[in-house]
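Tutorial handout. Part one gives the primary structure; part two gives the three-dimensional structure as tokens.
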Amino acid sequence: MQSLYLIVALFNGVTFYIFVRYCRASVIFAFAVYFCWVYLLAQMALIRQSIALSFLMLSLIRFDKSKHSSALALFFMAIGFQYSVLMFAPVFLTKAYKKIIAFEIPILLALAAFYLSGISLFDMLGYVAEHAHFRFITEKFQHYSSLGPSPKSVGTAIYLLINIFSFLYFSKFANISSRLEKSLMLSILVTIILEAVFWQFSLLWLRAHYFVVIAQGILLYKTWETIKPLHRAAQLTVVFVLSIVALVKPLLDETARPYFPYQTSMRFIYTNDLGDGRKRLEDYNLMASEKECAITKCRPGILNK
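Part two.
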């Protein structure tokens, strides 16, 4: 399993480097932001999703070069790894970007109002599951609807506001002659739409979040070309604080147990002690199983089989 993590992380790392360099941004800065927000989860728990997003980045590079056939092929490869990548299809509609920016305030206000209204399209999943003619789609929607709606929280509301602010902020600096920068901006808008409209379906907009963090890191760096040093210092302070919170908060939660290293290499070399990583993972799986069974009334342990 660790070999698989290494291979996936290596492929994703090389793709990340190529994409950020192609965007003419700082790899170190973009990776620092990416690491704090999503790296551990993306590389260790969402393997198919992380690979799919890597193919999405390669597709965007080909799209920017007007190599539409290869861009489409890479996008379909991304979908082959994770169907949720389909929600990023609008990022290729860059010709509509100017019209969107012209009405960005009304659009964002409408989305914020929809979120605050408490209306959600989560119930659509149940309807689609009942009326879909394809077994695969039916099973997928039945699974997601069975998980139940996610409640609103202060954290999710703050994250929505952060994305709305970042879209407004970057729209003042984004190069409208750059097809790639327009795609990055559209990815933020897609995430805002998913958060506002499907706020009860956190699994959906969180999958968008794993790419949007990269887009925001790149766009943030691109603003440095035009802002003053004092502005940059304030910007970095805010980003640093938010990123540290994003990194530390999940690690303090009990669900972070599997993400701590199973052992240190030096301990293994000198003592052959693998550490307690496997036990912590098994304890976490049992804990998750018991929580799920409290809802479904099954017997703990069944979910781990």
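Part three, for discussion. The longest helix spans residues 229-252. The chain has two domains: 2-252, 258-305.
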